[in-house]
Amino acid sequence: MTRAMQRRVLLAVPTALAAPALPQSAAVDLLLVLAVDASGSIDADEFALQREGIAEALAHPSVLAVIRSRPRRAIGVAMVEWGSPGGAATVVEWLRIADAASAEAAAEAMRAAPRSPQSWNAIGDALVHAGALLAAAPWRADERTIDVSGDGPDMRSRTPAPDARDALVAQGVVINGLAIEVSSNWRDGRLAALFERDVIGGPGAFVMRAEDRRDIARAMRAKLVREIAQGRVPGDASPV
Questions:
Q1: Contact of 66 with 225, CB cutoff 8 Å
Q2: Which of 62, 99, 177, 197 is 20 to 30 Å from 189 at the Cα level?
Q3: What's the CA gap between 208 and 22, in Å, rounded?
Q4: In whole angstroms, what is the distance from residue 240 CA to residue 189 CA?
Q5: By C-alpha distance, which of 236, 217, 189, 238 is closest to 56?
Q6: How far, CA to CA in Å, does 64 sit from each of 74, 75, 128, 142, 207?
Q7: What is the CATH architecture of 33-94+101-229?
Q8: Phi and psi based region of residue 189 (left: phi greater than 0; alpha: psi -120 to 50; beta: remaining)
Q9: What does the DSSP 8-state code read for residue 145?
Q10: Contact (Cβ atoms closer than 8 angstroms) between residue 221 and residue 57
């Protein structure tokens, strides 16, 4: 992609996010895009743990309690898988979570979605895709968050992650990260530091670490609690 084309992509992000407001009756407290690593470095076991961690977190009582504590008592969630340059895919469309039944339905949708074909490792393009998904959401929300989880840094994006991040943050989107530090190349906080430098942004943005595969579910649950609560719940969701 040429520089001119990259510029057009970046300019399209804030334009899309300026979509007309929906009626107040269609509002939720938070629009949250879960951008999940499905690249070639994610083996079947790690992929299953990511999916199960998300599903378990969405239906967990602590997450439901935080949703109920918000003014509108509801959030909107969608899931994107990323990996290939320009190949990010929406695998679960927008779902509204407001109670245990809708949370369990969302959890089952996250578990059941087929894995998308991905290579590696384009976080910036995932952010561009997630920004367009936020613009097309069926509900309005004052808070919009993209939650990026992955086991490696941005490497091959057509739109570099810092550029995509900056364009989204300028429109009020918060981007958080979950660094899955299972590779020996990225342990001991090295991947989290790269996420902090290149991926996250916006008020209160943070990175959490999952230091092994068994830690993914705990980290995902803690991160969702913090995102939905806007950092008002201390718990175990401390940033890097």
A1: yes
A2: 62
A3: 33
A4: 8
A5: 217
A6: 9, 10, 29, 19, 22
A7: 3-Layer(aba) Sandwich (3.40)
A8: left
A9: E
A10: yes
Other beta carbons within 10 angstroms of residue 166's beta carbon come to 14
Q: What is the pLDDT of residues 130-147, one digit of tens each?
A: 999 999 999 999 999 999
Q: What is the three-class DSSP state of 32?
A: strand
C-alpha span between 93 and 15 (Å, rounded): 21
CA distance linking residue 219 with residue 226, whole number of Å: 11
Parallel, antiparallel or unpaired: strands 30-37 and 143-150: parallel
Tokens at 215, concatenated: 């830690």
pLDDT score of 80 more than 70: yes
- The sign of the CA dihedral 110, 34, 94, 105 is positive
Q: How sure is the predictor about 176, in pLDDT bands with cuts at 50, 70 and 90?
A: very high
CA 82 vs CA 66, 89, 121, 155: distances in Å: 28, 6, 8, 12
Q: Considering the entire predicted model, what is its pTM?
A: 0.85
Assign 179 to helix, strand or coil: strand
Closest CA relative to residue 94, chosen from 80, 112, 111, 108: 80
DSSP state of 138: S
Write down the pLDDT at residue 161. 97
